[in-house]
Amino acid sequence: MTMHELTTLVRREYWEHRSLLWAPLGVAALIVFGTLFGTHLQGGVQISMNGSQADYFGRLATDAAAQQKIFAIWTAALILPILVAALFVCFGYLVDCLYAERKDRSILFWRSLPVSDRDTVLAKFFVAMVATPLLVWAVALGASLLTFVLVSFKVAGTPLAPLGQWHGSTWLGVQWMLLQNIFVAILWYAPIAAYLMLVSVYAKRSGWVSATLPPLLIVIAEELIFGTNYVYRFITYRLTGFFKAVDVGIGNVGHGASGEAIARSVDDAHQRLSAVAFLGEPDLWLGVAVAALLLVVVMRARRLRGET
Amino acid sequence: MTNHIIEARHLRKSYQPGKPVLDDVGFTIGAGRIVGLMGPNGAGKTTALKAILGLTAFEGELRVLGHDPRTQRDRLMQEICFIADVAVLPKWLRVAQALDYVDGVHPRFDRSRAEAVLARTDVGMRARIGELSKGMTTQLHLALIMAIDAKLLILDEPTLGLDLLYRRTFYDTLLNDYFNRERTILVTTHQVEEIEHLLTDVLFIDRGRIVLDAAVETLPERFVQVVTNATHASAARALGPIDEREVFGRIAMTFENRRADELASFGETRIPSIADLFVAKMQGARR
User: Do residue B177 and residue B263 come from a single domain?
Assistant: First the structure.
């Protein structure tokens, strides 16, 4: 497959499934507009802090390293809602991508052109697992810049002013780390994507039902027959594993917490931003192998399903 | 061997055991021919085409442009022009996108040529295929075909469901602007009259078997029709017509491998049309 062919195949997918573009852009727009039209638009941000928070922001004003940490956390966290939205539309895309062409019989048109089943399947996988995640990354990058500008205007002259401090190299570092995280997420979710494509290539009716019903039935059957929930745990582990690895929550810092406790919690969250350590997880690579295997099955299946 | 565009031997295929769709089919197609693959519905036309295009599994030997469609389908598809019938063009695709796509994946596609063909029509580049009328979709189909410079063009019932005007335009444009000595066209249809004037060769297929494989120029030597009456009918019948039909009280009999002068005494003789032969062969096979 040449670069030109790949570009053509990828563009074709976005022509058909425009939600792959609009969902990440839409969520990013919501974040930016939410910041712009947030409740404290007029006259900057109104602050009501208890003593310990005031204490924390007091330190923040003079502590550059702490500023960078909290800056890294909130600019990195922006990507999460965009990524979640993209995961949902990718799920829908994958269960539909090899089913819709059979439903409207356009598979006969696609297969009348010199594009192999292998290239078709790979291009569709690429769209869901590479092109769209990279789009998410780029959109989040843009959103973090716009949001930062808005935030810095709003916090100016308030006790939260340290949040409006720009840290260029930290920002670059965060973007690079997010790109790595995206890469880890691609590897982690590859077997799910391949499974959804397998469902899509065999589905007789709606892909959504075909993709979710069998695992659901297995989970219920296991619960009823053996009273165990291994399959359920396995599925949720696969679905949420990545987000557990990159946990940006600042933890539960209660109202009475000291400035010290808040700072510790921020440090913890900052430690957990990168998912690169997850690459050492054998389960991740096992999943990649399963994905490769499933994709080969999907390629052969499309060939057979294309025959009438 | 090598100047054959398609070479098929002992092709067999059945979807259900004991009911072959292709039953020992063999034929060759040379360069620069326009071949009509004709047969009634369910005769095996489409299956034969699918075999040629590597879209279905089969037994037997088949070379298309020197390639085995089963194992070299991807190479093969780059060298032939086959745009599946217009009914399967995806409705969401815009005309400009269709051109972009084919341009992106087909090495022999000339986009400017397709645009030139479309410029002469009412087909808008921004329109979605689902919004086009049937006639416009055909024009788009034709524009795509005309822009692919391939040695072999395969058309599967290209004018199905179109009115006479579009059917005529389709074949006229194809013949005048596309066909030349270097190109070979294989077309399937069950509307025989439609294409008989443009064919150089005919392949009749019935219930999975080839029942006639002949160059059009050899048909007059091989087939003759006599229109006779009841008085001469039994004498004529003794010579073994392959088909017999009653038309307005007269009897038309079609003979194979009989000279016209042998039959002249029974009535007026003439060269049967391809449509006549088609009916004769299909009915003959059923008797």
Answer: no
